[in-house]
Amino acid sequence: MECNNLGIALVHYPVLNKHHEVVTSALTNLDQHDIARSSKTFGLDRFYIVTPSEEQRKLAERISGHWQQGWGAAYNPDRRQALDIVRVTPTIASAVADFQSGFSKPVKIAITGAAHRSGSIALATFRKHLQETDQPYLLLLGTGWGLTEECFATADFILEPIAGSGTYNHLSVRSAAAIMLDRLKGTER
Q1: pLDDT at position 91
Q2: 166 CB contacts (<8 Å, ≥6 apart)?
Q3: Measured distance CA(85)–CA(37) in Å, rounded
Q4: Number of structural domains found in the chain
Q5: CA 76, CA 111: separation in Å to the nearest integer?
Q6: DSSP per-residue string spanning 95-133
Q7: Collapsed DSSP state (helix, strand, coil) of residue 138
Q8: β-pairing, 86-89 with 47-50?
Q9: Domain annotation covers residue 48
Q10: At what angle do helices 123-132 and 173-185 cross, to 10 degrees?
């Protein structure tokens, strides 16, 4: 049986800092918990944390492990279910390779950021595409000040950013992930 055709990856490298330099950003406990919970709520089978930092990968595995076994698993079984879908990988390519194991068709990349880009498609359009095909997609979300231009250049789909009603546009990545997952996989009303 094939997996849900959408997976999500929180990318910590290659991302930009506020000076537009390529950096590795730090893992945050809240992002890991909240995106895992949102991903599980909307039926995803995989949530990847991508970081080349061995220390950060070990930390991510320790955070998940706390809720998957022992005291944490007994205390909060719902969190265990959510963190069971977390996979920690050193590169985007390794996340794609892992996600690929559930599919016969090659995994394609969907990507988004806070800035509008030419050629981007609406989330509603991508939702329809996900519903009408079994093509697997890995949705990349950037940390820091967003993913690099190279990431955008190699993506198969660029999704429009989440837009609010004002000019301020600086959602946390966990909030943006929850909104996107609701729009892509939530119940239609």
Answers
A1: 98
A2: none
A3: 9
A4: 1
A5: 32
A6: HHHHHHTT-SSPPEEEE--SS--TT-B-HHHHHHHHHH-
A7: strand
A8: parallel
A9: yes
A10: 50
Residue 3 pLDDT level (bands cut at 50, 70, 90): low
The reported pLDDT for the residue numbered 144 is 95
On the CB side of 151, CA atoms within 13 Å amount to 27
Whether omega before 14 lies within 30 degrees of 0, making that bond cis, reads: yes
What average pLDDT does range 102-130 have in this prediction?
Answer: 95
Tally of CB atoms within 10 A around 103: 15
pTM of the model: 0.94
pLDDT at 2: 47
Residue 126 in this model has a pLDDT that exceeds 60: yes
Select from 62, 68, 99 the least CA-distant residue to 83: 68
Read off the CATH number of the domain in which 163 is found.
Answer: 3.40.1280.10
Report the alpha-carbon distance of residue 80 to residue 27 in Å, rounded.
Answer: 19
Percent of the chain with pLDDT over 70: 98
* Tokens found for residue 144: 């820091």
Note down the domain range covering 60: 6-185
1 occurs within a structural domain: no
Q: What is the mean pLDDT of residues 87-105?
A: 96
Integer-rounded Cα Rg, in Å, for the chain is: 16
For 102, the token pair is: 């559930």
- Amino acid identity of residue 62, one-letter, is R
Phi, psi of 162 (to 5 degrees): -70, 130
Burial grade of 136 (CB within 10 A; 0-12, 13-18, 19 or more)? buried
